Amino acid sequence: MAKLVALTRLAAAAIALAFMVTWVAPAVAQQVNPTANAVQEQQLLKSLKTIDGRGTIPDKKSYVLEQPGRDWRHFHQVTLHWIGGIAIIGVLAILVIFYLTRGMIRIESGRSGRTIIRFTAVERFVHWLTATCFIILALSGLNITFGRTLLLPLIGPSAFTTWSEFAKYAHNYLSFPFTIGVVAIFLMWIAGNIPNRVDVEWLKRGGGMVGHDHPPAYRFNAGQKMIYWIVVIGGTAVAVTGYLLMFPFYGGLGVGDMQLAQVVHGIVAVLFVAAMLGHIYIGTIGMEGAFEAMGEGTVDVNWAKEHHRLWLEEEMARVGPNESQTQPQSRPMATPAE
Amino acid sequence: MARMKFLCDADRCIECNACVTACKNEHEVPWGINRRRVVTLNDGKPGERSISMACMHCTDPPCAAVCPTNVFYVTADAVVLNNKDLCIGCGYCFYACPFGAPQYPKTTNFGSRGKMDKCTFCAGGPEADGSKEEYAKYGANRLAEGKLPLCAEMCSTKSLLAGDGEIIATIYKERVAKRGYGSGAWGWQTAYRETIAT
Asked: Whole-prediction pTM value?
């Protein structure tokens, strides 16, 4: 009997225990942390530059939840200002110093009064098309980076916005003729701008910028070739990145790609402006007789003799001097400077 | 003065998109523009979370820093607002924003953008509070009426909290303490340089 009671107790205890186990088990399960394997922001940010998800609106770029990096902000607010400031003010300073020490580079043998055709009407048209667009693009572009600091305090927010909006449209629309100009320049002058051995000599002699040296050159000297390639390569870079910025997020580009396009566009553009300041200087107040080449299209024969001797020899052999004008009789042909 | 913030409790968000709809309706936001959106992470996988995101009204806002025409200003309640009269639609604020908040109506040719539109924390713009002009440009100014942003008010699970940073942080902390878990205040570290210790 006692044995039966003991057995029953044991069975009851076993059943009770079994019940307890089955009852306790779900309670344990409920205490499992539901966020244990949930996505964690800091963990995602550590492993990724942006946090992307899925959304329900058509705007795909809105699926980026967070892009915490502030590199682009730093580039735009600090780096670009320094690069642009140093490049542009630096070049201007060099030009001022150069002008004050060297002055305008004269035609040493004086004007012969005889001219030779240097650039055709088509060439000049393409040059000035590109140049006009470039100046407006440069000013409106610099306005985006430097206007808020330099111009806004002077003219006030309302006028500054009116000007900046106009400048933005000018920047967008004039990019098209500018691009056409760059392509035309590339095709039109490629033949004269392949680097060769004469350029090495020209560069070794510093382009004749120091002293009264006149290293020989064909149609374009090494300095002009550099300008040519800056225009072609720099122009292509600003055009490509510019169109990416103008047609934002096309072709599945993300915000990171847009930032990169702006970085390239900004850096190339300010360096381009700095380089063109040098080009404008030497083509105007820097050198006597240089502006006429792009102005009227003709240059004085003595100018050509001093700066592009090899080209002049080629041209003389081919067509002779410009006979469409009356040549002065009294003045004999000046002796070469070299 | 309060320091207004948003907090989305991702453990409560059920991705119903009521906040998105409430916002669009309250402010009569133009077609194609969403001031608020819901993004789902790890969709369909264990640990999936949805987060309602809009302008976080950052401390030291990157949009204001990069803006070429100085469009942005911060109110006494630390709400980041934009003056549409000064905007030229360059798109730089979108590149700088960590949360993809700025939106642009497609108004003109090419991909060119109209004047930027974003979440105002239901606080309107620079025009007179509650004026017609303000409503047309920025939508309702609920803050001036003593009300909080409608997205948070409408939230069916009270996942989205809007209000003074201290208060909503306390609410969130209490929740985390009571239920024993919380996946954190999304975006706070990026926006405010601080997060909620739980």
From this structure: 0.86
